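Need a sequence for this fold. Nothing fancy.
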C-alpha cells in the first residue's frame, strides 16, 4: 500500500513539475461535455512519460495515470457541485427577499384584520355594557320607587285613624 502511495505521490509530483515547467501548455483545463457535466482534462501523456522516466513500467504508468485522472475528475466534479454561481446566489437572494417581503405583507395584513376585529368586538362590548348599565339603572329605579311607595304607604297608614 505504501508503494502505491509513493507511486501516486511521484505521479502528482511529476505532473506538478511538468505543469510548472510548461505553464500554459500542460494545465488542467475544464470543458463542458454534451451531457452538461464538466470534464477536467489532464495531460496524461506527460504524466505517463514522467512515471516511465522514474522507472515505472509503461502499463502500470498508464493504469496509475488513469486512476489519478479519474479520482481528480471525480474530486473536482464534487467540488464544483458545492459551489453556486454569483448569478444563482443573487437569484436566490432576490427570491428570499421577495418571499420575506410577501410574508411581512401578509403579517401586516393579518395584524390589521385582527386589530379591526378587536375594535369591533370592543365597540360591541361597550354597547353591551351600556345596555346592562341602563337595565341596572331601570331595576334600581324600580326598586327605589317601590321602596318609596312602601315608605309612603307606611306613613299613610300611620296617619289613618284607628
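Here you go.
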Amino acid at each position: 500500500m505504501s508503494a502505491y502511495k509513493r507511486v501516486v505521490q511521484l505521479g502528482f509530483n511529476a505532473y506538478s513539475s511538468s505543469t510548472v515547467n510548461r505553464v500554459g501548455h500542460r494545465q488542467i483545463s475544464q470543458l463542458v461535455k454534451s451531457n452538461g457535466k464538466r470534464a477536467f482534462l489532464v495531460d496524461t501523456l506527460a504524466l505517463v512519460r514522467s512515471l516511465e522516466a522514474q522507472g515505472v513500467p509503461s502499463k502500470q504508468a498508464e493504469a496509475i495515470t488513469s486512476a489519478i485522472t479519474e479520482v481528480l475528475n471525480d474530486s473536482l466534479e464534487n467540488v464544483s457541485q458545492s459551489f453556486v454561481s454569483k448569478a444563482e446566489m443573487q437569484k436566490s437572494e432576490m427570491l428570499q427577499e421577495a418571499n420575506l417581503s410577501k410574508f411581512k405583507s401578509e403579517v401586516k395584513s393579518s395584524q390589521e384584520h385582527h386589530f379591526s376585529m378587536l375594535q369591533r368586538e370592543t365597540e360591541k362590548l361597550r354597547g353591551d355594557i351600556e345596555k346592562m348599565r341602563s337595565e341596572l339603572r331601570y331595576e334600581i329605579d324600580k326598586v327605589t320607587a317601590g321602596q318609596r311607595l312602601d315608605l309612603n304607604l307606611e306613613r299613610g297608614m300611620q296617619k289613618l285613624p284607628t
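For context: Residues 86-159 form the longest helix (74 residues).
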